# Entry
Amino acid sequence: MNRTLGLVTAGVLVGAAATVVTAASSQSDAERWNVASGITWAQYNPDQKLAYLQGFLAGSGLADAERAAGTADTVALGAALDSLVRWGGLRFAYGAWVYASQLDDHYWWETHTNTRMLFTLREINQRIKARQ
# Structure
């Protein structure tokens, strides 16, 4: 009976340690969004890629709206954001999957894998806009 209790206790401790390591790893990843590169991108599954890009686009859209509205008022920001979306005035004006496919293509080349995603997204966006 004591052996079973000891094994259960050991299992709980191993599980707790794994949870702590996973949480620390997740926190580290979250803190390192500014240096994430093609290596990080390759490790993401499609849902994670979409989540990253939707967050990126939301943050960029909010920054554009703040510049356009000139205020932090939520109603004015909402109106500015809606206007920018409607008239194509967002700096990053394309959907998440457009950027995802471009990132996949860009990072397919091994020489690009160390490039930060933020810089790659900026470069991709500039290329797409130059084609218009």
